[in-house]
Structure formats: structure tokens, C-alpha cells
Amino acid sequence: MSPKTHTPGTVAVGSPLRLPCGVVLPNRLAKAAMSEQLADITGAPSQTLTRLYSAWGRGGAGLLITGNVMIDRRAFVEPRNVTLEDERHLEQVGNWARAGAREGAAMVMQINHPGRVAVGPLYRRPVGPSALRPQAVGFNLRKPRALSSDKIAELRRRFVRTAELAVTAGFSGVQVHAAHGYMLSQFLSPIANQRDDRYGGNAENRRRLLLEIVADVRKTIGPTAILSVKLNSADFQRGGFEEDESLDVALALEAAGIDLLEISGGNYEAPAMTGVMSDSTREREAYFLRYAEALRARPRVPLMLTGGIRTREFMNEVLGTGAVDLIGLGRPFAIRPDIAAGLLAGEREPQALPIAPRIPLPGADPINSYLQLAWHAANFRRIAAGAEQVSGPGAARTLAAAGLTVTARALTQF
Predict the structure, then answer these.
(1) What CATH number did the domain enclosing 211 receive?
(2) 3-state secondary structure of 330
(3) Is 269 within 8 Å of 135 (Cβ atoms)?
């Protein structure tokens, strides 16, 4: 993969970015993935979801990455995630892709399997790399089944099939989700993966499945579609997936020919990606910048940094130094859909944006994290209905509404 072609100091948020596959992003701002939970009962993208992405498509970002799209309708991250495992919803998926891309943004579908974590106790028994429960509040009721070799092969086929369908429907590419404690992240983790076969036991074996899936997907979607991976810089758990191992995985992904690596961190047990943890990374404006800087000392895959970045000056600073190539924003898009256009027009920062209320449940970081995300998800319907800026409900209403909504959706999912 060729090195970056810009000179440090000359790149800013409005600069175009050419990815190795040849796709040119019109600017350096991306809407990062947020789980919308706006599929209909069959798993198809709803009209509300399509309208939401139409609003985000008009909002100025060069890249829109969808929230979780499930590769298997038997395994959801949350109720009402979109599922794509065959052609039955291909027309609706195509409408979704065109809605986001109408103003020039590239649309990338994030594809995922939850593995041993899924919201709510009503799901069928989960699966994972090993038969080990996650140690997180609300996720320790069900012991997962360890995947057999045959089921791992099926998992590979499902990732490939969903990627193929996404590109066929009109998406510019896919992002393989290997972060935040979901299935592929579980395989990378020494805590979740205690297998003694070719998919576990050492770092090389733990990353084998991810690299196989990336190779399979690239072969299927071809060299001109975007292939991205979302990877944890670390799990933020003692004995878990650490930064040194993550750097090795990133280099292996570069060698495998990915076009974009999005850097994140944490999981349901240690939700660093949402900013609710009392971790030293919260003291920095960009939660995972140090990792990006460490990776930049090695061969260079295009990098997307997401988490905690809020000012235009800081965005231009990290882009200008060459530490990263693309800035990902998540929750600001759930408050103001045209935040990218404002930043590109020269706004100093998203000054008037409200922030999510703190959900003060002491000692319950995973629940607080989920309720933070639920606060933003409550705004998606308002944006789809035409709101230009939304403040969302307060903390108490979020707590009550999230419980009712998840329960109702779970009861009607299957």
C-alpha cells in the first residue's frame, strides 16, 4: 500500500481523501457508526431509517458509516437492527444506500455479529469463541456456546455474503466490525477466547479469523469497493486485548489490503468508546489519539479516528500532522445532522450543541454507556422527521423510555 500523498500541515477537514481502492472522499469528516435500531420487524431498513440517512447525506460528511447490520437474523446486537443475509430486502437496502449518497457522500455498511453479547434476556442462547460469560452488568445471564469449526466456517461465509449484498445494493463498501467486544473482537481477546485450536492459544491464532474474513470479503467485493475495519486500540481490561497486539493486527490488516482502519476501544465490560469511564484517556480531546500516533511510526494504512473530538482546530491539527487521515464523529450527528457542513464552513466548534445528560448509576458503567447511546437514538426519529437540531429527553425519561423501547422491540423481534 502506498504511503500518504499529502505533506503534513497542508491537510484540513475540507481536503479530499483518495482511498487505496480509488474511491475519493470529498472531505475528511465521517459520520461514525451508531446503532439506529430502525429496521422494520422483518429486518429490512425502514422508511424512517432511509429518511434519517437522507438528512445525514445532506449534512456535509464525506463518508457515512451505518450502524450495526447483522449478518445473521438469529443474532442481534439490539432489537430492530437491520439484517442482510439474502436478497429479500435488497430493494430497501438499495434505497437506503442511495439516500445517503445522493449528495456525494460515500455510504459504507458496517457488518457485524454480536457473539456472546446481545441486549436483553429474550434472545436465543448466544455463541462465542469460548463458552465464557461476559462479566458485564446485564450480560452475564446466558453462557454462550463455543463455536465449532463448522460454525466458524459458516460465520466466514455470512460476513462475505452480507458484504456482497451490500455492494450489489449500491453501498460503496463495508466496514467489518472487529471492536467493542462483538464476535470478532471476542476472538482477538485473550479473555474471551480461550480456544486451543488454530483460532486461539496465541496472538497469531486469535487474529486468524479476522484476517480470513477480510481476505474473503476483499476477494468477493473486488479491489474498487471500500473495505474498512473497525479495531480496538485496546479493550481496557486487565489481561485483555492490548495496544501492542492491536498494532500487530493493524499491520496485518494493512498487508491484507484494507482501505481504511477506524480506531476505537473498549467493550461492554469497559465501555471506553462512549466516554463514560473514569479513564485517563478522557482527559484528552481524542480518546485514542496516542494509539494512532504509535501506528503512524510504522507503515501507513489510512486511519480514521473516532471518539471525543469536538473542535475544528483540533481536527485540523491532527490531520495536518498526518497522525490520522479522517475524523469520525458519532453522537454530534445525533444532535445536529449538518454538523459536518458547519465545520467545513469554518465554524470554530459545535458551540450550541447540547450534550447527553449523565446517567448517574454508580458502579454501572455498561448500563450508563447504553443509556447514553439510547439518549442519542431517541433523536434519530426527530432528525428523520426534519428536525435540524434536537436536544433529546432528559436523563430520567431516557432511563424509562429505553427500558420500555428495548423490551417492546425484543418481544416483537422473533
Answers:
(1) 3.20.20.70
(2) coil
(3) yes
State the average pLDDT for the chain: 83
**Residue of 219, 227, 109 whose CA lies nearest to 166:** 109
Task: Compute the distance between CA of residue 2 and CA of residue 209 in angstroms, rounded to an integer.
Answer: 26
Q: Is residue 382 part of a domain?
A: no
Angle at 333 between CA 306 and CA 247, to 5 degrees: 10
Q: What is the pLDDT of residues 19-51, one digit of tens each?
A: 999 999 999 999 999 989 899 999 999 999 999
Domain total in the chain: 1
Q: In sequence order, which residues have a C-beta less than 8 Å from that of residue 206 and are 6 or more positions away?
A: 187, 188, 189, 190, 193, 199, 200
In the prediction, which pLDDT does 290 show? 83
Does residue 30 form part of some domain? yes
Cell of 121: 434476556
CA–CA gap between residue 143 and residue 347 (Å, rounded)? 49
Flag whether 162 is in a domain: yes
pLDDT for position 85: 97
Domain membership of residue 247 as a residue range: 17-355
Specify if 403 maps to a domain.
no
